[in-house]
Sequence to fold (358 residues):
Amino acid sequence: MKISGVVIETCKKRNMVTVYTSNGQFLKVPAPRFDIKTGEIIEVPQNATRCVRKTMLSMRVISAAAAVFALVMFLSIYLAFFTVPVSAYVALDFNPSLELKINKQAKVMDVRSINEDADKLLKDLNLKDANVYKAVEKIMDKAIALGYIKLDEKNLVIASVVPVGEETVVDREKLESVIANNIQQKEIDSYILVDTSNEKTRNIAAENGLSVNRYKVMEHYHEAGLNISAQEINNKNMMDIMKDNNIYLTKKQDYTTLTHQNEINPGKNAGMQNNSDMMETSGALMSNNMDRDSSKSQFNYIQRSGDMKNDTMHNGSEKNEQTMESSRTGDTDMNHDQYEDMKYPNKQMNHDMSRIKY
Fold:
């Protein structure tokens, strides 16, 4: 019986060829009288063959395994020392919607544009390797220059810090301060909500094509019975959405809530002339401070420098006492509910909505 094999090596000096047979053996045989090339199939007579030593095949296998092991070790070391892990995400909305990816050195690794306005805002804006707070300043400056944050209208700026892991290099309060200072220096009338979120919420938001900020606002609207789609909330100005759906920001003690007009005492609605009146909260900046021990968000109240001369509700109790006395004696138009609110500032109003859940 003859055996066929594929020529895998030739040795002209010894006039021998190495073949790999159909039954899986490496054999050395005398070279045929005609010229033979690697890859050709020849017939190998049994009485003219001898086996290749097993040590040769074993050495080849060991060498190949060692090479693979060395490659794996190299890639592991490279990934460990040269691949920078993500430490946090920072989401910004004001109508451009974008997300910064931050490394453990608090520098920008990448920027994700989430809507068309963000595409325009980020064009020619190089933020890679910039400090996260400097990057936010650049973004705010360009947003103002392009008119996304308007000088003559009220604006809403929402930001969220999403830590990756237990610790993050992005400080929520410092981020809030950077945004607020940028707004205050230009004397722009704005509401600012800054919060922390988590990776789970961010991932769900991404699946809906939204930033974590807009997703949380959309969920709040849905809880209030408002049918707002992800596409609508992603491409429309946030203040316009609130006006169109009778949503307004209201200051209540030490936090801000988003409230639907229908949830307010109907008797008070009659006094509201338009949606812009509903948006008024003493001309203040609003900033969000997440209560980590609760699923609800608390909002701190930041007074804008331009309002320091105004006698607003946060200027002390003396003004309140004078106003209550005037109301009691009939010298003011304050109604009973307003008088009760001022007399008992810590009373929880029935028409208040629950705070935004994160």
Residues 251-358 have pLDDT under 50 and may be disordered. The radius of gyration is 35 Å.
